């Protein structure tokens, strides 16, 4: 790509440099990356830029971020014959994308309804929990911690409906919903137009609609939140299917 036509964003530059090190063997499968703080100092960028770059590489299936254990380079499956590099990433993503698409359909039905009911039934105690989670997502520098707060935010929407059947349904799907939310965050960061701040704003707007007891706005904000990821999924699919030189 001609950088004079579209200058790279900082996180894209960091992402490409780390990926180049992997391609050239300077970073081997199993190698542990430096901490976010150290990488930010090394590249002379903010920590949020490093988190976006790492999340993008995670979305491509190139990194494994372990809770409390650091970030590691993942091994690509051995190829029986030379293939275009983009095809390797497409193969890694294909199975995850199909599963995520199905989960997004479930989330669209379930969570838009829960958001509306939460706006109608929420209590002051519910609002206090939402505010705590939003604050944690704003202030933390730990991507895994932020991810957990994200999951808890969506779970709290189910709790705020005060409908035991809906809550039971949400809990029965908790593992799958958790995985889809992790992929959702990765997709947000992978999209060229996305950033940690924009993802945070999505959650704030959903919270504000619930706090204001605006059922229509809560439904619309949750629908938009999920639709944006679906759009990125479709764009990524088109990217991999595009003719390659």
From TrEMBL:
<dbReference type="InterPro" id="IPR036388">
    <property type="entry name" value="WH-like_DNA-bd_sf"/>
</dbReference>
<keyword id="KW-0804">Transcription</keyword>
<dbReference type="InterPro" id="IPR000524">
    <property type="entry name" value="Tscrpt_reg_HTH_GntR"/>
</dbReference>
<dbReference type="GO" id="GO:0003677">
    <property type="term" value="F:DNA binding"/>
</dbReference>
<keyword id="KW-0805">Transcription regulation</keyword>
<dbReference type="InterPro" id="IPR036390">
    <property type="entry name" value="WH_DNA-bd_sf"/>
</dbReference>
<dbReference type="InterPro" id="IPR011711">
    <property type="entry name" value="GntR_C"/>
</dbReference>
<protein>
    <submittedName>
        <fullName>HTH-type transcriptional regulator LutR</fullName>
    </submittedName>
</protein>
<dbReference type="Pfam" id="PF07729">
    <property type="entry name" value="FCD"/>
</dbReference>
<dbReference type="GO" id="GO:0003700">
    <property type="term" value="F:DNA-binding transcription factor activity"/>
</dbReference>
<keyword id="KW-0238">DNA-binding</keyword>
<dbReference type="InterPro" id="IPR008920">
    <property type="entry name" value="TF_FadR/GntR_C"/>
</dbReference>
<dbReference type="Pfam" id="PF00392">
    <property type="entry name" value="GntR"/>
</dbReference>
<feature type="domain" description="HTH gntR-type">
    <location>
        <begin position="8"/>
        <end position="76"/>
    </location>
</feature>
């Amino acid at each position: 790509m001609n950088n004079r036509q579209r200058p790279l964003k900082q996180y894209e530059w960091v992402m490409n440099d780390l990926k180049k090190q992997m391609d050239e063997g300077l970073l081997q499968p199993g190698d542990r990356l430096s901490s976010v703080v150290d990488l930010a100092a090394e590249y002379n960028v903010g920590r949020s830029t490093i988190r976006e770059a790492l999340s993008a590489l995670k979305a491509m299936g190139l990194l494994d971020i372990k809770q409390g254990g650091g970030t590691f380079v993942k091994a690509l499956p051995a190829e029986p014959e030379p293939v275009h590099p983009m095809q390797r990433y497409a193969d890694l993503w294909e199975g995850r994308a199909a599963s995520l698409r199905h989960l997004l359909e479930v989330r669209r039905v379930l969570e838009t309804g829960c958001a509306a009911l939460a706006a109608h039934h929420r209590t002051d105690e519910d609002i206090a929990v939402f505010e705590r989670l939003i604050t944690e997502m704003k202030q933390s520098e730990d991507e895994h911690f932020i991810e957990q707060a994200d999951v808890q935010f969506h779970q709290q929407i189910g709790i705020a409906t005060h409908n035991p059947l809906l809550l039971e349904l949400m809990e029965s799907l908790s593992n799958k919903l958790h995985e889809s939310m992790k992929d959702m965050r990765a997709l947000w960061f992978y999209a060229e137009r996305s950033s940690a701040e924009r993802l945070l704003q999505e959650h704030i707007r959903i919270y504000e609609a619930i706090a204001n007891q605006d059922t229509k706005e809560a439904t619309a904000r949750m629908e938009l939140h999920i639709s944006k990821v679906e759009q990125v999924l479709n764009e990524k699919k088109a990217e991999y299917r595009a003719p390659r030189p």
